[in-house]
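Quarterly update from the structural biology core.
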Amino acid sequence: MVEVSYIVAFGAGIVSFLAPCVLPLVPGFLIYLAGTSAKEGSGKRWDIVLASILFVAGFSLVFSLLGVLLNTVLMSVSNGAQLWLSRAGGLIIIFFGLYLIGLIRISWLEQEHKFSVTGIKSKYLTSFIFGVAFAAGWTPCVGAALGAILGLAANQPSLAFTLLLAYSAGLGVPFIITGLFASQAVGWIKKYSGVLHYVNIVFGILLIIIGILIFTQTLSIIANLPELNGYLLGSG
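Predicted structure, tokenized:
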């Protein structure tokens, strides 16, 4: 069950990266952070990769601290309260699953929230600060997947930190890969943009199933599936 939670958290990070108001902006944004231009992008690949890593480090720090805070707060409540928090978390996961498959629309989650950082001459420090600000709300598009992981953390308080870390990894790895191939990424994004809608639908359905299992306190069913356990643990 723990392994499944981490896979879901990592997948939620990838879904956040693929959000329609995040993905199209990524290549140009990373090139901007590296202090270069689109024409120079391929020639300054490692500058872009370093900017990507620092950007990822910024939002990973914030999400990790959020995980520590959740762990501290949730572990201090009574068992009875944890049960109701778990059920509330299940409802939250179901809600965001319905949002991802398109059955619920929330205009606030579909708006871009941009910001600017001025007065800092170091492009590396700027990249890190942008990462911190991204976690704090550069765009609410990450809100659906992140909200689902926070709901999952409510069900498993002891895993809150590592769940948020797995989410950060799922969101961060594609950023770094895009930074490595920034000059080609624009073409790839345009070519495969039509597939992204189906990714959201599949992940949304998965969230709804997990949310129902959490709400009904039957998530342990997943842990009792020998085929799934064998696959996740590499034991065949």
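Residues 182-215 form the longest helix (34 residues).
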